[in-house]
Structure formats: C-alpha cells, structure tokens
Amino acid sequence: MIAVACGTREGREIISLLVAKGYDCMALTTTEYGGQLAGENAVEVRWGEITTKNLAKIFEEKAIQAVVDASHPFADKISKLLYEFCENNRLPYIRYLREETKLPRNSLIYPVTSWQEAAEFAQKLGDTIFLTTGSHNLEQFLGWIDRKKKRIVVRILPDYKIVKKCQDLGLTPRDLVAMQGPFSKQINKATFKMYNASVIVTKDSGKAGGTDTKIAAALDLGIPVVVLKRPFLEQGRSARTYEEIVSFLNAELGDKRKSAD
C-alpha cells in the first residue's frame, strides 16, 4: 500500500492515477474535510495531526511500502517529517512539486521570504490588509501588525473550527470571508473591491492554488500584492509530473503493488 499525503487537489488526482495503475493507496490528511475529499478513491483515509508516532503505528498496521508527499507547497514541516521518517525506516519517498508562479514584472508586486517580512511590507503598503493565505500562521502574521491602526480581512475555508480560531484571535465576522477556492480573477476583483482592500497578501501556491488570478485581479485594481515565496526543501526525490511518480514507484516496488494486509 502507498501512503499519499494529501493537502491539495493534486494529491487526490495522484491517488486516482495510482489506483488506476494497480496500487492500493491510503490518504493522509490533517483535516476531516480533507479526508472526505480524498476518500473517493483511496482504500483508506487517516486524518489528524501527522507525527512520527502516528506514522509508525499506521505504517506498521498497513504495511506501507512507499510515501508520496503531495502535501501543500507550504507544508514544509510535514514534508520534513515524512522524509525523515522514510529515511529512518528505509522507505521510498517522493515529493510532488507544484509549479511556482511566474511573477510578472510590476512595481506593485513585492516578493518576500518570511511571514514577518510579509507583515512589515503589508503595513507600509496599506491600511486594509486582505489576507488570502488562510488560517495557517495567522497568529504569526497578526503578531507583527499594529491592529489598532490596520484592518485585517482574512479569507478562509468555511470550516467552523477555522472560523472559531480567527474569532479567538480577535477577528470579527465583518473581517472574515469564508469561501472555498481557488477563485477566478472576476471573483477576486469583486471581493477585493467589496472589502476596500488596499494591499493583498498571498502565498505562492502556484496556478493550482489560484495565485495567478489573485495577482491579476489586484493589478487590475491597482492594489499592491505581497507574495510569500514558498520554502525551499532540498531533500529526497521530487517530481513535477504525475508520470514521474508512477515511474518512481514502479522502479522501487516492481510487482509489489498490492497491500500486504
């Protein structure tokens, strides 16, 4: 059985492809909702915090033969944990790399490499900061913002736990946009205008994550965009196409395609 760490649409597509190629797959997700999305083709789904202890138990129970890491491009801690676990247990590991966004040359685009840098630029660029980065690392970002002088609008998944987290951090309902993306350029433009955004903050989640349409919408409106570049992880084997993943597993596992349970 292959364990596929899912946090993206690509993860679900990879599971579908591997199942079609004769592999049994288990989906690993951090949220129940993510597990529901991934469960259509996976033989089994495990959701919750991914820890070394949890992995050891699951992998022994299900005789996991290899790991495909299709977690979110910014889930660097999960990727590091999965890679180190596989290294220590001599399991094949491959990371799917989503293509990065090709940023247009424009004076309104501000690439940064840390959350602190993103917050510092956002504060300088506008009074209504529209965060399209979700709820992860929200505490960090808010900690670097003068919230008495700046309005923070956050676009998040419509999940009650995430909404509660935002409210616990002091954000009010008027500053929460609970919608599931990715969004078209038109929807982004309408939303940015509705909330009178004066600066947009986004992660470089690639085209699949809607980064291109966020930037295009902001530039059309003349709004500056702070783009948090993804962390660079140089570890293990990586792939930029689904076919590379299939070839890797075929080479590593040969005919051992079915789970041992």
Arithmetic mean pLDDT: 91
Helix content: 25-40%
What is the strand tally? Answer: 12
CATH C-level category of the largest domain: Alpha Beta
Please summarize the sheet with the most strands.
6 strands, parallel
> Radius of gyration, Cα only, in angstroms?
20 Å
The separation of the N and C termini measures 9 Å
Judged by helices, strands and strand pairing, the structural class is: alpha/beta
Q: Write the H/E string, N to C.
A: EHEHEHEHEEHEHEHEHEHEEH
- The global form is elongated
Low-confidence stretches: none
Please indicate the percent range of residues in DSSP E strands (runs of 2 or more). Answer: 15-25%
According to CATH, what is the topology of the largest domain? Rossmann fold
CATH superfamily of the largest domain: NAD(P)-binding Rossmann-like Domain
CATH architecture identity of the largest domain: 3-Layer(aba) Sandwich
Number of domains: 2
Query: Strand order of the main beta sheet, please?
Result: 3-2-1-4-5-12
Total helical segments: 10
How is this structure best described in words?
The chain is of the alpha/beta class. The chain folds into 2 domains: 2-98 and 233-253, Rossmann fold (3-Layer(aba) Sandwich); 109-228, 3-Layer(aba) Sandwich (Rossmann fold), CATH 3.40.50. It is built from 10 helices and 12 strands. The strands form 2 sheets. Strands 3-2-1-4-5-12 form a 6-stranded parallel sheet, with helices on both faces. It has a 6-stranded parallel sheet with strand order 6-11-10-7-8-9, with helices on both faces. Helix 6 (138-143) links the parallel strand 7 and strand 8 (151-156). Helix 8 crosses helix 9. The N and C termini lie close together (9 Å).
